Amino acid sequence: MEPITIHLKKGLKISFITKYCDIFIQIIITAILARLLKPSDYGLFAIVVIFINFAQLIAEIGIGPAIIQNNELDIKDISMLFLFTLFQGLIMAIVYYFLSFLIFFIYRHQIFLDSRIDIGIIIFISSITTVPLGILRKKLDFFYLGFFTIWANVIAGLGGIFFALKGFGVYSLIYKTIISGILMFVFFYIKAKIKISFKFNPHSLNKIKNYSLNQFGFNIITYIARNIDNLLIGKVIGTSALGIYDRAYKLMMYPIQNLTLIINPVLHPVLTKIRDDKDQLRKTYLKVLRLLSLISIPLIAVLYIFSKDIILIFYGPNWLESVKIFKILCFVSGLQVLSITTSSIFQAAGRPDLLFKTGLFSNIILVIGILVGLKWGIEGVAWGYLISYLITIIPIFFILFSLLNGHILEILEVVKTSTVICVIILIILGLSMNIFRISNLYLRFGTFVTIGVFVYMSLLVLFKQHKFIANALKH
To answer: Which residue from 4, 24, 435, 436 has the least number of CB within 10 angstroms?
Structure first.
């Protein structure tokens, strides 16, 4: 077995197990918190998180992926980069402190002033975690990353529940984030063994400048576009509507987005090792894409048909307004699972410039779609999101496959079987639910999900896709 295959196989297995253990825990914690907090609490926190993550992106300035990509960095360079993120994080925390007055002026809520020190702490901790995290990913130490991320989130989640029970409201979510950030920094910093030096050496920054700046530009543009929906909903429609929209979006993206979060951290460092072999890059990417589609597209069908039951089980009856949003975002999620891994290929191929340009194009379209949809409320925003994805996905894949000496039509072959399986599952589940009407929520959900899983597994065998999945993991 080739070394690159061994690394990819091992990394994916570890990432899959640890990430989905973390998802399971996060879903339980979220289900508890959703019953203790109000939609407006989540709406306020969704706005706060936008500014936290934006400040973090500026503080990190694309250094994490650059560490993975660059093989010429020595111990002194790593020390210098850590020092840089420390000062960047401190600066951005101070900037946010004063920016909070502007945010308060826009949204007219005291939380943006009262929480500014707490948010500054979150920004600072996230910034100084960038280099240790990048080092561990470069070393392919996915077990350590996954294991201690789970522990950090368990402890933070319990802390969030404690504060929610004590009536802290939105601060429960803020304190949960602080606890998680501190624990992950400590765990990752100890393992990365970074030596702190306060000698400034601009040469270390020059080594990663070109790569990190393109990556940074892509991250900023993408982040603004992906979060403008929350900013506008919070301002124009209100925080309660934003809470409903945000929870529907987060729940929909949990299984799919986290699947790609398993793939991308593994793909980038592993495929960087074969970046000069475009044919092998393309073949590996197509296999990963096929595996993703076989798992995620049928899953999306199940999520769509059980949307109301899922909202009731995980969030409770106070969140039923999010069902329509959840259904629309099912289709967005299906497109995202096909496109979101493209960033790893652009990174691995050493073309962050293309990553930046395609990101700029797709996000301009996305912003236009969201602005147009805003006229029809949160449901219109969700439709704008979907239509924007439909418009941009083909040009991005065309550029990607041109880079890899391939043809965009190769994607049709990849998703053909998974799409057929998806349609069959929808038909069978739809008929079953009309024939067998079960009133008990949990019994109904358990029964039909079991039927869906059985049908899915049977179709994998019928279309001989179980052999592909087994072989993909083996080789």
So the answer is: 435
